[in-house]
Amino acid sequence: MNKRQLYKTALFSSPIIAAFELSPIFFLIKEPILHFFAGMAGVTVVTFILWSLNIYILNAFENRRKEKQWSRYLCSYVSALFIIMLLLLSSKFFGLPKEKGPSILFPFINSVALNTIILIIINSIVNRSKNEQSERELALLKIKNLEAEQQQLIQQLQPHFLFNALSTLKSLISNNTELAEEYLIKLSDFLRYTISSHASTLVSLEEEMKFTNDYIKLQQIRFGNSIFCKTDVPETAKQSFLLPAYALQTLVENALKHNAFTIGKPLNLSIIYKDAGIEVRNNKIPRLNENKTGVGLENLDKRYSLIGGEGIKVDDNTDYFFVRIKLIPKK
Known about the structure:
With 331 residues, this protein is an alpha+beta fold. It has 2 domains: 3-134, no CATH class; 176-329, Histidine kinase-like ATPase, C-terminal domain (Heat Shock Protein 90, 2-Layer Sandwich), CATH 3.30.565. 65% of the residues lie in helices and 12% in strands. The protein contains 9 helices and 8 strands. The strands form 2 sheets. A 5-stranded mixed beta sheet has the order 2-4-5-7-6, covered by helices on one side. A 3-stranded antiparallel beta sheet has the order 1-3-8. A hairpin with a 3-residue loop joins β6 (313-316) and β7 (320-326). The protein starts with a helix and ends with a strand.
């Protein structure tokens, strides 16, 4: 229950409800305008007292089961009538001359109506708050489910990736020990990130860029001059933004997976920062008879929709493939 929101609503609505309550009476009996404002001030105070009383009762009955909530309403109406009775005993409720005032029953009827309005508004706010909380919890569960799917995909790909990486490393050790050492360092950093980022939903752009650059370097060592990559991401952006773990690496991996690049027809990648987003573009060299599943991009799109409110933007052209992902500012 959001008490602050309820009290803000009480402060805002009390004079409005008071004006609504008193206007018909003063128009009918044609009292001076000063009496109207004096009466409105009094009813505003009473309305706020009823608001405060109902917020207190709501808090007291918060942990009761739904079917037991009738006792909350009974307590609310009894308390409201008791307050009106005390006010009538101490002073005139509306501040009107006795001979022109309404029936003695009117304050009690009016208090019941006033209390009903307050209960309706409170229930509306509480139900909306509960719905928003449920939606947040559901979104969090969906994100966790997608993260689990992401980890499952990574675990499925890792054995194949490690087999290729170790085969490449074995070849390099025989032919180029310096390059083999560089490859081993990049591979170590790459694997360290895959382990450490398992517990994180969001990572910094700096971390993800380093991880992706390590991945690209590993592939460039393996495939030689058949892969080229241009990056243009300012250091300030790296420090200022977050994104889902593996988001950028997934896009690069997707480009490598779905293109038949060679030294004669190299794959040209570009990773560009623009307007609080990252744009990844590559030329298209389609593989023959390829069965595209689109699981990686679909998973990433769902994660972005849940975390940031909007999905990724894809442009699948005849000559190039383009994806834009929105970056999330650090709080």
